Predict the structure.
Amino acid sequence: MKIPSSELVLNNLGEVYHLGLAPSDLASKIILVGDQGRVQQIGQFFSSIRVKKNHREFYTITGTYKGIEITVLSTGIGTDNIDIVINELDALVNIDLQKKEIKSNQTQLQLLRIGTCGIFQKDIPLHSYLLSLGAFGLDNVAHFYDITNSQHSILLAAQFKRQVELPSAIEPYFGYASEKIINSFPKHVNLHLGYTVTSSGFYGPQGRSLRLNLKSKEMKSSFENQNIDGVNIINFEMESSALFSLSAALGHHAGTICLGIANRITNEFSTDYTSEMDQLILYSLDSFINL
């Protein structure tokens, strides 16, 4: 069945509307970053780059690292942008854009988010690597889709809601990261594994109050040293819940590894982490190409 032009929106070059990309621009291994500048930070380690494109906040390169082709794409900030990115990446490989029909043979992408985050465990130092096993979503993106959640993920979300303080209108959901991606990362002295909390904003939705009062004044402190079903909640960021849930529902592998640049429990913040991010990028690239 043909998808209407109002639903699968393309630009005048036949590229997906927001990303400004054509199917030939993509590798099957894709690194997602929030910051446009981090695209070039990763690209500095490539031996060659064959694609450079940008549209709006979405900057893309496709190049080669140790003989493996990888696409790097900036998503901008937040789960709303992840909704755009995952749907358009999937369309590039699994929909015939000329015929506007879903392909009979589906392509599986490998998606790795490399980002920064806040830490929720007092004993995890700044500049640690935080690898997500799954993410609790305080956003609403996944609620708009007819996604079948496992019974265990439903129970985890319910336990999370009981244990932490949230505004009453928030209905958290839980999405697993891909085990295939998690298992690709070897042991590292800086590596910590656990659950992530994904919020829809940086200030109030992450328990920060400047001039506006919060409905849940103890939300941030309620996350301290929490674990859910024996797994620690280790960090707070703004993309992974939608990334995991939508990718899994579409048949793709997705994971997130972040550099901890703030400890929300000890109130520490790193203002200069360029070299530490370079090291995380190299560790992640070497892990990602071995998938």
